[in-house]
Each structure stands twice: as C-alpha cells, then as structure tokens.
Design a protein that fits this description.
Radius of gyration: 20 Å
Structural class: alpha/beta
Number of strands: 10
Strand content: 15-25%
Order of helices and strands: HHEHHEHEHHEEEEHEHEEH
Strand order of the largest sheet: 7-4-3-8-9-10
Number of helices: 10
C-alpha cells in the first residue's frame, strides 16, 4: 500500500507547475510549526497568511495534490503534511554528500535544519590535503581521491556542490558517473549533465541583483516593472 501511495504521489508531482511546486516546501514548514503548536486544523486563509501568499493561490497550489480541504473546517494539518511530504519525496531516505569543505561547505554541513527535514548529511569531501581528515561535527572530511568509494559506502543519493566554478563540471561528471542523479550546485557555472539528472542551481549574486532591482523600484516608481522577476 505504501508503495502505491508513493507512486501516486510521484505521478501528481510530475504534473505540478514549477511555481506551485516551489511553494510546497513553504506550506510544509508552516504546517510543521502548526503541528508543533498542537494545531490540528487550519483554514486556507490562515495557512496562506502564514506562508505569505493569498488564499486563492494556496487553494490552486494544493488542488494539484487533489487536496481541497473542507468548507468551514479547513485542512487537517497532519494529513496535509503527509500528502505534501509524499509529493516532495520526503517519505524516503535522502543521504547527502557535500563536495567542498570550504566556508560554505562547512556551514552547510553544520546546518541542523537538514536533519529535521528528512536529509541526512552522510559525507563531506575536499581536495585540500590540509582540510582532509579534519572534523565537522560528526563527519570527517574525506579526500576527493576516495569520492566514488565513499559515495557507494555511505549510500549517498544526493550531492551538494560547494566547489569553485573551474572544477565544478569535472566533479559533476564524477558524481553522475557514480550514480547520483540529484545535484544542488552553488558553483557559478551552468553544469552539463544527462537528461535524467536533476540540477538545482543556487546563485546568491543573482538573487541579490533581483533584490536590488525591487529595492530600487520601491524607491523610484519610474523604474520599469518586470513581470519576469
């Protein structure tokens, strides 16, 4: 039965628009906080306000899950959490490797929020021999020469790239060859990967530029509006 639920959830996820999919983790975070406060039911208006969206948008997003709530009653917090978790694939175990133990990699390895959201950081690597062997929390930095061996041994199925752009493609090629098909990249380059590999790129500089645009527009209404941002 659980396998059937997972299959149905994956089918629904494939049909969810990217913008709606991007908001599901926000709803899940709000629901998690509500459950921690022992709230059992929540209205679409309350959930939307806490998530920073309007209630029609929230209802449209959740309708892609086949979830519509009950008029006058709202959503069952625990049930909705379960449905969103299934769609996002959080009901299975995700073991993460961080490639790069510089300032960013160390900060990511020490982030406690991963564990509470279903992600187990199982390994961290670096090419600098002065860094290899040092400890970050309960992890010991492994050398890049042992990348494939450690990925297999730790059963990692997701990787985070926190390496310079000059070596990012080479590292991506190695982890893809090792069977990793989900990559979160902080490298300032566009990675070339096979179609079956999913890559999410985090570009902090670009996000700051977009933020600067909105800040400038708030100060000067004559700045042209861009619906793409």
């Amino acid at each position: 039965m659980s396998e059937r639920i997972e299959s149905d959830a994956q089918d629904r996820a494939r049909g969810i628009p990217p913008a709606s999919l991007a908001r599901l983790p926000i709803y899940l975070r709000v629901l998690t906080n509500l459950l921690a406060d022992e709230v059992e039911r929540v209205s679409s208006e309350e959930l939307a306000e806490a998530a920073g969206v309007n209630s029609p948008q929230l209802r449209r997003d959740l309708s892609h899950l086949g979830t519509y709530g009950t008029r006058g009653v709202g959503y069952d917090v625990k049930v909705l959490m379960t449905e969103i978790s299934h769609v996002l694939g959080l009901s299975q175990q995700w073991r993460v490797a961080i490639i790069g133990a510089g300032n960013l990699g160390r900060a990511l390895a020490g982030y406690s929020g991963f564990g509470t959201r279903g992600f187990d950081v199982a390994a961290i690597f670096d090419a600098d021999q002065l860094v290899v062997g040092t400890e970050i929390g309960y992890l010991r930095v492994a050398p890049m020469s042992q990348l494939e061996q450690v990925l297999s041994m730790t059963r990692v199925n997701m990787a985070v790239l926190a390496v310079p752009g000059a070596v990012a493609q080479e590292v991506a090629d190695r982890i893809v060859a090792a069977g990793i098909t989900s990559i979160l990249s902080f490298a300032p380059v566009v990675l070339q990967v096979p179609e079956h590999v999913q890559v999410r790129k985090v570009d902090v500089a670009t996000e700051l530029q977009i933020l600067a645009y909105h800040a400038q527009r708030a100060q000067d209404p004559d700045v042209p509006e861009s619906h793409a941002l």
